[in-house]
Write a structure and sequence with these properties.
The chain is mostly helical. It has one domain. Helix content is about 75%, strand content about 0%. It is built from 3 helices and no strands. Helix 1 runs antiparallel to helix 2, helix 1 runs parallel beside helix 3 and helix 2 runs antiparallel to helix 3. The protein is rod-shaped, with a radius of gyration of 22 Å. The N and C termini lie far apart (about 95 Å).
């Protein structure tokens, strides 16, 4: 008997979906941009919109490849972040317009 024989094929490591992970990370980054824009720098809301759109595209393409829960979570997180960032941007523009009309 050969001393290198292990009795069967080696188990494969589970494959991770990089697009789903990227979608989840971009969702978290866009939510972080939303909170930064609420409490510190307002223009981060517009950055959050761009990041959420990229994350949504990544999540959709990851979900087309495999029906993983991580891809679904990334899509949901990016949709929520996109909606909140758009609402924040509308509120920012409305406040700026109101301040401009008071000043002038």
């Amino acid at each position: 008997m050969d001393q290198y024989y292990h009795g069967g094929p080696h188990p494969q490591a589970p494959k991770s979906n990089g697009l789903a992970i990227a979608s989840l990370v971009t969702g978290l980054v866009s939510l972080a941009c939303l909170f930064i824009s609420m409490f510190w720098l307002a223009f981060f809301g517009f950055i959050g919109i761009a990041v959420a759109i990229v994350g949504l595209v990544l999540g959709i393409s990851a979900r087309k490849k495999t029906k993983s829960g991580m891809a679904t979570a990334g899509m949901v997180l990016n949709i929520i972040a996109l909606a909140l960032c758009i609402l924040g941007a509308i509120a920012l523009i409305a406040c700026a317009a109101m301040i401009y009309s008071i000043i002038s």
